[in-house]
Every structure is written in structure tokens, then in C-alpha cells.
Amino acid sequence: MQTPAPFEYERATSVDGAIASLQRLGPEARIIAGGHSLLPMMKLRLASPEHLIDINDLAELAYIREDDGMIRIGALTRHVELLKSELLARRFPIFGDAERVIADPVVRNRGTIGGSLCQADAAEDLSAVCSATKAHVVIRGGEGERVVPMEDFHVGPYMTAVGAGELLTEIRLPLFPGAGSAHEKVERRAGDWAIAAASAAVWIEGGSLSQVGIALSAVGMTTIHLTRAEELLRGNAPSEELFAQAGEIASEDCSPSADGRGPIDYKRHLAGVLTHRALRRATERALQTGGVA
Amino acid sequence: MNVTITVNGQTTTNDVEPRQLLVHHLRETLDLTGTHWGCDTSNCGACVVLMDGQPVKSCTILAAMCEGHEIRTVESLEVDGRLDPVQEGFHERHALQCGFCTPGMLMTARALLDENPDPTDHEIRTAISGAICRCTGYKNIVSAVRWAAEHEAAAEQGA
């Protein structure tokens, strides 16, 4: 039987209360939301927090809405809500692409976007999705809020910019004209982690790529942000030739390791092909909506 | 700590260790052994129960997290000797062999039909994609869920 080591449990009744508990209990306290990453790690003794602070009652952290020129997603929003959201399907269809292949529907009833990002597993899909869509995350602590861009959020494997006594509360996706986005993943079987996955977002104005975001899952120690490929594409008209070049950069700039999911050369190949496909599909979507999402 | 949960319509309060998982709470504390304890890693789906109507894997939820929530287990499907249509469907279409995955399959199917009374075969397959049957019985399981959907629809029309 796999059972976590003993810990003290408390249920937060407010965001400020959860942060106060984190600060009072110190580094051996952890937040639990969906628990589908943390509890398995606790069973395996990869994590042994002495206190769990359950934030599942904090309904004020579960929402997807558009205001102030951005999409705001509460950290406690569950995968199932991201998959069903008509707003996200219209503004950022990349979320639907990713959510359909994250774990299985029963797991998606519990797991949350905040938990996924804070777990900071390099094979996790939403971190790449949020990197590609140029998301910013809101981190709240005792001193107030700070807003951190995704490129500064993951500071290492399983490590994020969320500090001691702080809580991730919101993900913000900026809205610009001509947006299109897509996520492409190859896995061994339904619901598995990616062998490799690519997220792409494009913004097309006046026939050229005004902004591009590309990120890879499962082919490095952290989510890989393909800045070199983004720079290559930015300012140019979208074309198959450019997308192929971006794919070549993806193959070069990733750093996969060989494991049961495949050897290094296969994963590099996949990173390139999936980057190309994600850019192609993101562009098709941007052009279909005529630049107005 | 004391935890109060409504299980199959009955509210129970028990002293539990915070680390106790819901699946063990159901099986050992409440003696509801219909819910099976399988892979322990949220992969196999044998332990699926409904939490506020939604299917969840009870090996990956603490009993303490269920305080104030409603849990439904496979024991609740049969009422006064009448099987739930999903149970009848599994019987009619021979959708189990060893039976280990069956409680999770039944609860997953029940939740699907509650939300979508007329699912396509693809929707059924997607819904049960988080549940593993090692007797290779998926074809009959899909057929059983369809049987239940058709008979529920017919029963509603007849009512």
C-alpha cells in the first residue's frame, strides 16, 4: 500500500488565509489543490511536507474570464473547465488541443492549471502552452502581488519563481489581434506524458507575423522556450519554408534524454516535426478567424 | 481529525488520519469494499467514485479533502433489489470477466450518462479512457454502456 508520510492538514477559507498559513508554518508546508501530482510524490516519499494547506474551497480562484484586454484564468481552474471553455476555444484553441491529451477525463476533473504550472514538470503540457501564449502569472504573498512572465517562471526542474509564503493565483493571457494557436503532442498511449510536444502561438497582422511564441514539452530538463525560432519568424510572412526552419531550430535547441519513451535522435526529430505542425495549424487558425478572434 | 462525509446519502463522521486516502476510508473505515483499490497511481480507474456527481480517482484524494462533500460508490447503484441500467447493461452484454475494473467502470459510465444520456461510441471510449480492463473487455464495456443509454431513454419515454 502506498500512503503518504504523516502530516497535518488544514483547509484554507481565503487566499490571504492560505498565504498566512504558508508563512506561519514555514518551508515544510505545501499547498494542495487537485493533488494529482503532489499525492503521488508523497506516496513515493519524493515529497514529505509536514503540513498540507488545502485550497479546494477557494472558489474565488476558479474562473476563466476576459477583461482589460486579456484572458484571466484562476489558478484553481480544473483541466475539465479549460477543456470545456468556449471563451478559450475561441481565443486560444491551443488549450483545447492540450487538454484533450492531458491524462484522462477523470484525472482532469481534479487537476488544476495552477498545480500543473507549479509542479514545473518539463513533460507537462500547460507550461509549454502558457509559454507560447506569452502568459504572465500572478504570485501573491504577504507583501502583495507580483506579475511574472512565463519565461521567468520556471527557474529549474520542478522549481518555479513562487517563493516561500507565496501562492500562484492567476494566469493572464494577453490579447492581441490576429491570434492563432495550437499544441501538438505525441505520446505512447492515451493519457500518457508526451514523448515530445510543441506549443505554438502566432499573431498575424497585415500578412506578417507580428509576434510568435513557441515552446516544447518533455525534451529537456525544463519547458524549452524557442526564442531563436521566434526571432527567425517575427516580422516575416508565414510560410512552410520558415516553419520548416523553425522545426530545424527546435531539433537543435532541445536537449532530450534517452528513456523508455525513446532515444535522443527520435525525440529531436519529433520536436522538429511537431514544431512545424503546431506553427502550421496555429497560422491556419489565425487566418481562419480573419485576424479577429 | 474528525471528517464528516456524505457517502451514498448517509452522513458519517469519523476520526481519520489526515494522510488516509479516500479509497481506504471507504473500504476500511466504512466497510464499503465495492470500490476497488488498484494501481495506487491514478492510472487504472478501479477506484473511481463520484464526488459531488463527478467521477474521481479515490486513490488520489485524501478522505480529509472530502469533508462536506457527497461521495457515491458502486454500492449505491442498486436500489431495493433493482440494478442500475449500467449494471444491467454489463450483465446483458457480458462486459466483465474478472470484475476487478468493474466498480470503476460502472461509476464512470454512470457519470457519463448523467451528463450525456446519448453518447456516441467515441464519447464512451473517451469517458472510460482513464480506466483499464486487463481482460480486454473494452468492446463489450462500450456495448454495455450503449445498452444502458438506450434502455434509460426507453424507460423515460415509457414513464
Characteristics of this structure?
heterodimer; A: 293 residues; alpha+beta; five-stranded antiparallel β-sheet; four-stranded antiparallel β-sheet; 11 helices; 14 strands; 34% helix; 27% strand; globular; B: 159 residues; five-stranded mixed β-sheet; 5 helices; 5 strands
Give the N-terminus to C-terminus distance of chain A in angstroms. Answer: 50 Å
- Write down the secondary-structure element order of chain A: EHEHEEEHHHHHHEEEEEEEEEHHH
User: What is the string of helix and strand elements of chain B?
Assistant: EEHEEEHHHH
Give the termini separation of chain B.
46 Å
Instruction: Based on Cα principal axes, name the global outline of chain B.
Output: globular
The proportion of residues in beta strands of chain A is 25-35%
Helix content of chain A: 25-40%
- How is the main sheet of chain B built? 5 strands, mixed
Low-confidence stretches of chain B: none
Low-confidence stretches of chain A: none
Question: Strand order of the main beta sheet of chain A, please?
Answer: 4-5-10-6-7
What structural class do the secondary elements of chain B suggest? alpha+beta
Radius of gyration of chain B: 16 Å
